[in-house]
Design brief:
Number of domains: 1
Order of helices and strands: EHEEEHHEEHEEHEEEEEH
Distance between the termini: 40 Å
Helix content: 10-25%
Number of helices: 6
Largest sheet: 6 strands, antiparallel
Number of strands: 13
């Protein structure tokens, strides 16, 4: 089932805050495209990535979403009229990438992914390890770099790795969400670098779309697709050529004719 969340109010939004409540079944927002799970999800370790752990994820969207996004980019006035006719002042899509190590049942998704990372008290509850807003465009296939931790962690104030834990904030870092046996600290060029050995471990990924529908009162309703099928990289993964999926294009249907046949 798709997930529905409403965000109010205009004043809270203007202040950069969001209030969350469950949307009733009869309040399901109308969408101008078919919302279904991302397809063709592929994960590949990047040997020349910007960190030792960098992984590239590719994922594709259906034709109706691609056309909608293309209209937004290339025919914005017509696109906006269609959104206004549906009762919205704006609409956007955020791909979300979840992950699990050495199993397909230890995912890191939690309720804060639905609320842009914030809890009911407007405090941030997730960190760089939660990919809640990846790259999105009208392209049939999109890619994103993830697992880009792997710098020197000698600094105890490293926010991404250690997080923040005090009486006012509790924001988990990588060290809080990774199990101790899933990574090791290596000395690389005199720096302490956390590394996930993909000869030993397998990382599984899944992707979903989170659609934000904003009405004329600046109230947001979030709609989530189902999760995609999983992709794997590492020990049990398949080293696929990302160029194959990146070259995919949305099919173009034209010159249709009706014949006796």
């Amino acid at each position: 089932m798709k997930r529905f969340l409403s965000f109010v109010s205009a004043l809270a939004l203007a202040a950069g805050l969001m209030s969350v409540g469950a949307a009733a079944a009869d309040e399901q927002p109308k969408l101008p495209f078919e919302l279904e799970a991302p397809k063709d999800v592929i994960a590949k370790k990047l040997e020349d990535g910007d960190t030792v752990n960098t992984i590239q994820i590719a994922y594709s969207q259906n034709d109706s979403m691609s056309k909608w996004a293309s209209d937004k980019e290339n025919n914005h006035d017509g696109w906006l009229k269609e959104m206004n006719d549906l009762g919205y002042s704006d609409m956007w899509v955020s791909p979300q990438i979840d992950w699990s190590i050495d199993s397909e049942d230890d995912w890191h998704y939690n309720k804060y992914w639905d609320t842009e990372g914030y809890d009911e008290n407007y405090k941030l509850r997730i960190n760089d390890w939660a990919y809640i807003s990846a790259s999105y465009s009208s392209e049939k296939t999109m890619t994103e770099w993830v697992f880009r931790f792997g710098y020197d962690i000698s600094n105890p104030d490293d926010y991404a790795w250690y997080g923040v834990h005090n009486e006012d904030e509790d924001i988990p870092g990588w060290v809080d969400v990774l199990k101790e046996d899933q990574y090791e600290i290596r000395d690389i060029n005199g720096e302490r670098i956390p590394v996930i050995d993909l000869d030993v471990h397998t990382v599984y990924f899944r992707v979903r779309w989170l659609v934000t529908c904003r009405d004329f009162d600046d109230v947001d309703t979030k709609v989530a697709s189902e999760w995609s099928a999983t992709a794997a990289v590492g020990k049990e993964g398949t080293d696929l050529d990302l160029s194959l999926i990146e070259a995919m294009e949305a099919p173009v249907v034209k010159d249709l004719r009706i014949t006796d046949e």
